[in-house]
Design brief:
Number of strands: 12
Number of helices: 5
Strand content: 25-35%
Largest sheet: 6 strands, mixed
Shape: globular
CATH topology: Deoxyribonuclease I, Chain A
CATH class: Alpha Beta
Strand order of the largest sheet: 3-4-2-1-12-11
Structural class: alpha+beta
Helix content: 10-25%
CATH architecture: 4-Layer Sandwich
Oligomer: single chain
Length: 230
């Protein structure tokens, strides 16, 4: 059994408009997930340092970031980052270039959980429905090019407000969605913008939205989670 989680941390700026990365660490520890996809994990301007200082993650959590080597000081690629348990071995990681009008990307990691290998893709898709569908198909194409039998999980902020159409239909032809629930806005959730999707090799045992005092303050998105069996 593994716990997966996806969380748009909005650069660690909470609903009180204060940047408090320690709150994000608190939420991550509450989730106690084995694999986490973060969105908006880097600051937007300047050198784009990680929104969570590396020493906080190292000293106060059991998670480590996958290293993509794109920019010194950044945690991920275009704000997308993947975290895994410190005990897990990282076999491969890659940055995925996505078609877009504004800078967008996704990140891919293949990790050894100790019992099996798992492929994880983290993403934050476009605000435009047309570009979201192009990005979804680009991600699916990248996954299909790789070893087909490896259990695969796709997670992130899809920015899709429709219930069944758009990029959800594209992903749904290949993946199964976890019925996590509404995660945006943290103060009054009205939309399922954040999603966890799994391949046929992964069985969803339980899932939901993580609601706590820290998560309601930490970001404008609530984190979502899924317990899965491979």
């Amino acid at each position: 059994m593994l716990r997966l989680a996806s969380y748009n941390i909005r650069k660690a700026i909470g609903t009180d408009r204060r940047r408090r990365p320690e709150r994000i660490i608190e939420v991550l520890n509450e989730l106690d997930a084995d694999v986490v996809a973060l969105q908006e994990a880097d600051r937007r301007f300047g050198v784009r340092h990680a929104a969570i200082p590396p020493h906080l993650l190292e000293e106060h959590s059991d998670l480590k970031p996958l290293q993509f080597g794109w920019r010194a000081g950044s945690m991920g690629w275009h704000g997308n980052a993947l975290l895994v348990r410190k005990s897990m071995k990282v076999a491969h990681c890659a940055m995925l270039h996505l078609p877009s009008l504004e800078p967008r990307g996704a990140v891919l990691g293949e990790v050894d959980t100790g019992k099996t290998c798992l492929r994880v893709v983290g993403m934050h898709l476009d605000l435009s429905g047309l570009w979201r569908r192009r990005q979804a198909n680009a991600i699916l194409h990248e996954v299909e090019k790789r070893h087909h039998d490896m259990p695969t999980v796709l997670m992130g902020d899809l920015n899709e407000w429709t219930v069944r159409g758009g990029c959800l239909r594209d992903f749904g032809t290949h993946m199964t969605f976890a019925d996590t629930g509404k995660s945006y806005h943290a103060g009054n959730p009205i939309a399922r913008l954040d999603r966890i999707m799994v391949s046929k090799h992964v069985r969803i045992k339980a899932c939901g939205v993580h609601r706590s005092a820290a998560s309601r303050m930490g970001s404008d998105h609530l984190p979502i989670w899924a317990d899965v069996e491979i």
